[in-house]
């Protein structure tokens, strides 16, 4: 009887461990929504949002879509397009408003605020390269049981409207974690390195593909320790913290992109103080 009970407990543990860890829901600009799909078929449906393919998983015998919401979204009713068994339908979800604070930052390298024409040539080329990495789609299982890549003080939150040297710029697309130069950065989950490089604004950067449009980004690195196409396991060192690109000091900019939308990273990671 004791052996049987132990075997049952083992099966329960394995079942929990193998379950997909979903991000926390936040139906606001820059958030994530979990949309139940009215699909009976065992065949996985194809779902798109704003012409981008969306992550689809099966939870408790029901298909669900895991959708990243852009910061620029129009508040109110949004819809995803669902294709199943040759038929197309729409599923609606609601987005609530959220006010993000404004952050004023002084950058000593003025070219990082007002790039020259020469700089813009480089920046535009980099946009094409990074855009391809963020649009990458890998069908199959998704690794979302994230761990924090480093320990450190959160020095910049996602979504803040940034003003550099008095000039309004795009909102912060990730979160900043302050740490000394050389601090090791660990992969938050299993994945494939889709891009690395030294970028004008981002500095030394690594992109990890975790499946179905879920990409993590690591910016301003001192050193990159991985190569494009390399498979990494959770916890593996991918580089070290630095102060490259547009920065005021050493830190890690941690970003999460879902269906080619930058979303709040904290929704995917264990809660921290």
Describe the structure.
- Mean pLDDT is 89; it is low at 1-18.
- The protein has 273 residues and is mostly beta strands.
- Strands 9, 12, 13, 14, 15, 16, 17, 18, 19 and 20 form a ten-stranded antiparallel sheet that branches. It has a four-stranded antiparallel sheet with strand order 3-2-6-7, with no helix packed on it. The chain has a three-stranded antiparallel sheet with strand order 1-5-4, with no helix packed on it.
- A hairpin with a 2-residue loop joins strand 2 and strand 3.
- 13% of the residues lie in helices and 39% in strands.
- The protein folds into two domains: 21-95, Peptidoglycan hydrolase domains (Immunoglobulin-like, Sandwich), CATH 2.60.40; 102-267, Glucose Permease (Domain IIA).
- It has two helices and 20 strands.
